[in-house]
Amino acid sequence: MGEPTRVAVTGASGYIALHVIAGLLDQGHEVRGTLRDMARGDQIRTALARQTEVSKLSFAQTDLTSDDGWDEAFAGCQYVQHIASPLPAADPKNHDELIIPARDGALRALGAATRAGVERVVMTSSVAAVGQGHEVRDNFTENDWSIETLEIGAYALSKTIAERAAWDFIAGLPDDQSLELVTINPSLVVGPLIDPDGSASIEIVRKFMAREVPGCPRFGISLVDVRDVAAAHIAAMTAPGAAGHRYICSTEFRWMSQIAEQLNTEFGPSGRPVPTRVLPNFAVRLVALFDPTVRRIVPDLEQQRDYDSSALRRDLNWQTRPMDESVRATAESLIELGVV
Fold first, then answer.
1. Tens of pLDDT along 224-264?
2. Residues with Cβ within 8 Å of residue 9, at least 6 apart in sequence
3. How many domains does the chain have?
4. Distance CA 160, CA 164 (A)
5. Helix, strand, coil shares of the chain as percentages rounded to 5?
6. Distance between first and last Cα of the chain
7. Using CA atoms in the order 114, 118, 119, 123, what is the torsion angle rounded to 10 degrees?
8. Within a domain: residue 299?
9. Which site from 51, 62, 129, 152 is most exposed, i.e. has the minimal number of CB atoms within 10 Å?
10. Which residues contact 161 (CB under 8 A, 6 or more apart)?
11. pTM to 2 decimals?
12. Does 1 fall in a domain?
């Protein structure tokens, strides 16, 4: 770790951002978190105070869809963690509702970082910008990009377009301006919540724990612990060789039935049974007519996409927790914070 400095973290109330902020504060950095609604500041500070010392935490107001406040937020910062991006539980009917704020927000952050003399921006992307629109396979790497078609869904399209726009911005900087960029591309993020508002990414575990689904679809997904994602962001901020790279951040693939079996085994005996029967595909499609979160998984029933995180492990010495621990911690925090 380098000397403590000032770091701006966008979207400070978000699931990943809160863990990044906690990690930065633990290392002694001064953190300026950006919020769309400054009224959230006290709640966020209180939540983080249960994790770490918050005397070096301050907030500034920005919005992905507005030019206001970005220069002030990044003033005096050596690094920026650009994490803010819309992540709804279900895709909107109009893809632009996600694409415009994701792309334009990234460009606003990079523009302000350039004007502020920031050394490096670490930007949160997603494996949704890597493997969507391709034939399913088990070896997607950072060289792969999702195919920009409406069929991949609004979220994947927004992440792909925003990340490409960010790299194009860096490539287009004049010779007398310099700004380093690293992107972190996580798979589905699980793990403990710091604030009960949570994230759409933990909906799978929440729905099982709340018994909102009758069983397990024949669906699986690559997972990663939010604490490991935060560690990747922080390591990428200062690692000399990380600049100019995108890094897949994923631990392992799991079928929904595996997640449900673990949750039922660990929490069922204490009065929180989880449905474990495997649902036929036609039943999942029927539920999807009424549940937009379920609707999102229908195209990937019985498909397995695996992502290669070897570059992150090699370049940044990235270590990951066992996925059983991550799933357990997700459920425990949902219970502790009264979400389920």
1. 999 999 999 999 999 999 999 999 999 999 999 999 999 99
2. 17, 20, 21, 24, 31, 32, 33, 34, 80, 81, 83
3. 1
4. 6
5. 45, 15, 40
6. 38
7. -80
8. yes
9. 51
10. 99, 102, 103, 148
11. 0.94
12. no
